[in-house]
Design brief:
By secondary structure, the chain is α/β, with parallel strands linked by helices. 27% of the residues lie in helices and 30% in strands. The protein has helices at residues 9-22, 44-48, 63-70, 118-129; strands spanning 2-6, 27-32, 38-39, 59-61, 73-76, 78-84, 89-94, 100-104, 107-110. Strand 7 and strand 8 (100-104) form a beta hairpin. It is globular. The termini are far apart.
């Protein structure tokens, strides 16, 4: 089985590693549009305030370490620009070259929901636990 995860950093990377622990054999791919798959978000104020001098200290994992530790493929600087739900494929853009490609999937994890507070996060949890489609679901701030 192939799992596609849209977005890395905290939730996408955490989801991918948890999924790997539950399913050791499936192919897992993370598409992250920035240049980093996992970094210490909470350390940013210290970097800006010049307490942390080297930005590499904020990097927790790299695409290579994800592959070596978890057998998870990570494509940084890649953005999923379209989802074809009917044919179960995504269109991906390489953010550096602009080249577009497509990839078929069986299960897609869309990490683009915005939960601004606990209520929004709980709403996403409820939809997921009730096997509801998260497609086009808007999570509103309360």
């Amino acid at each position: 089985m192939r799992y596609i995860i849209m977005g890395g950093v905290a939730s996408g990377a955490s989801f991918a590693t948890r999924l790997r622990r539950l399913d050791e054999k499936s192919e897992i791919i993370i598409y992250e549009m920035s240049g980093y798959v996992s970094y210490a978000n909470c350390g940013l104020p210290y970097f800006i305030g010049d307490i942390i001098k080297d930005k590499s200290c904020l990097t927790l994992e790299t695409p290579l370490s994800f592959k070596e530790k978890f057998n998870i493929d990570v494509l940084i600087n890649h953005q999923v620009i379209k989802i074809d739900y009917l044919n179960k494929k995504i269109i991906i853009k390489d953010c550096l070259s602009g080249i577009r490609s497509y990839l078929a999937y069986r299960i897609l994890v869309n990490n683009n929901f915005k939960a601004y507070n606990l209520s929004g996060g709980y709403r996403i949890y409820q939809l997921f636990m009730n096997n509801k489609s998260l497609e086009n679901e808007a999570i509103e701030e309360e």
